[in-house]
Amino acid sequence: MNLGGVVSMEKKAGRRLGEKQSTSKGQISIDNVSISFGSGLTKKLAITETTLNITPGEFVCILGPSGCGKSTLLNAVAGYVSPSSGKILVDGKPVKGPSPERGMVFQQYSLFPWKTVHDNIAFGPRIAGYSSTECKSIANTLLSMIGLSNSAKCLPGELSGGMQQRVGIARALANYPSVLLMDEPFGALDAQTRLMMQESLLNIWSEFGTTVLFITHDVDEAIFLADRVLVMSASPGSIISDFRVGLERPRNPEISTSEEFIELKKQCLSQIRSESLKAFEGSGGH
Known about the structure:
The protein has 286 residues and is of the alpha/beta class. It has one domain (7-282): P-loop containing nucleotide triphosphate hydrolases (Rossmann fold), CATH 3.40.50.300. Helices cover 36% and strands 21% of the residues. The strands form 2 sheets. It has a 6-stranded mixed β-sheet, with helices on both faces. It has a 4-stranded antiparallel β-sheet with strand order 2-1-4-5, covered by helices on one side. Helix 6 links the parallel strand 7 (179-183) and strand 8 (211-215).
């Protein structure tokens, strides 16, 4: 990987692009958090008394029935939603709003359609005050990492869904976040592209070592990617299970046929089915 043009950028960031972060960065602490929306008769409790600690560099996936509050919890860590009670800390600092230290990747690609792929990736560093040379170096290096150097001058609309999402991940990483938050980023992709994106994400994560909090409905995806798989209860959501994934890394798709993978999948599916039935019955079967 050619990093010749990023010397001053590396000094600002305190490490090289593509080099794993210091293990002291990326600590997430969720302390007895509850989140509600509305007021009075319309008040709805989305998250209840949830406590969670994620260590720097961990890859954590959250599963749960639809409407359980997975995305709400993620948005609270991102700073888009404020807890009604409790607190959220990242690296010991209270989350009070969005921050470039917490990169976000959505299911929808959320790229600027009028900017080239290169300029989409360079946008964050440019806003953060890097020079034009530094922004170009960051974008070019990330484009190389995601295998899209030849598409630098393309507009997002000229790319496939999987390629657009790779750009979205690169853009989120361009500000050197200590935490990467991902809300079902591969949910809109076909099965084959999704698998390729999962492998690509693990390769990027192995380079950066960024803490990842990843929301998904797909049990196989969660087990394949994660160090830990968390299962949330039916609404109001809370963490009810925390499964440690002991599968060796690096991982390849064939690992999904291993006994350990299948057993963990059974446990996760059992928990989710139980909670989904509660949600279904609580809604009167509608």
